[in-house]
Write a structure and sequence with these properties.
- This protein has 291 residues and is an alpha/beta fold.
- It has a six-stranded mixed sheet, with helices on both faces.
- The longest helix has 20 residues.
- 39% of the residues lie in helices and 8% in strands.
- Bound molecules: uracil.
Length: 291
Amino acid sequence: MGKNSLNRLAGELKHFLLEQDEDEFITPAAPTKTAAGVSRADKKLFSMQENTTLTVDFPRAQHVATDTAPLPDQTKETPVMTTSQKQTALNELAQTINQCSRCPLGATRLHAVPGEGNVDADLMFVGEGPGYDEDRQGRPFVGRAGQLLDKMIAAMGLTREQVFIANIAKCHPMTDPQHPEKHGNDRAPNAGEIACCRKYLEQQIAIICPKYIVALGGVSAKALISDAKSLGALRGQFYNLTLDSVQLPRPVQVLATFHPAALLRNPNWKKDAWKDLQMVMAKLGLKTPVK
Ligand code: URA
C-alpha cells in the first residue's frame, strides 16, 4: 500500500474516532409546551459541538478543463412524472453532475454531491454546498451539520428517507483548495459557482416537484427566493418558487430557515428555527411526534 493511501486511511480513522467521541444521537423528546408555545423537542435537537480541525494527506484529481457538454434540454416544461420516471431522470442527472467540470470546483472535489432522498417527497431541504465529509462520501449533510439536520427532520416527525436533501452547489467549495485535507476549509459557493450549478438544482426540483422547500441558510434562501435580502428578512413567510430554466408542473413554496451549521455555532437561534419548521409542519399537516 502506498504512503498516500496509508496517510489517507490513518486520517479517516482518526476523523471517524473523533466524530464518535462527539456524537450525541438524540431522538426527539415527547413534546412539552413551554411558555412560548414551543415544544421542548428542539432543546433535545440542538446539543452538538463544534468541528474539530484535523489535517490528513488526501490526494485530489488533477485540474480538468471546462466541460462544454450541453446540459439536458431545460427549456421544456417538466411533466409530473411517475416514481420510476423520476428515479431514472434523477439518476441521469446525478451522472451528469458526477462528471461535471463546468466550474473550477470540479477539479478539486473528491466526489460531487448531487443529493439524495425520496423522489416523491413533499418536502425538500436545500443547503449551501458540500463540506469535508460530504466531499468524501458523495452524500449531502453527512457531517455534524447533517446530524443536526437529521434531528430537525426527526423532530418534524419525518425521516431522512421521506424527504429529499440537496444543495445549491454540488461540489465542495474550499477557502484553501491547495489543502483539501484540512478541516474548517469550507466556504460558501460564490456567484459563479452558484450560477454553474443552478440548472442542476432546478431540474431536480422540477423532477421531484415537492410541495415545500426549506432553504437552509442565507445562501440557499437568496438563491431560491431570488432576493438579496438577509436571511433574517426572508424568514417567516412562504415564497412561490420560480425557476429560470424549467417550468414547474405545479407550484412549489419556499421557506427559509437557519443553516444547521449556523445553529451549531449559535444555539440561541434554535428556537426560531424550530418555529420555522413548525410552519412547514402545519402546511403538511404534520404533528410533533410523541416519543
Ligand atoms: N452544509 C451544506 O450546506 N450542505 C451539506 O451537504 C453539508 C453541509
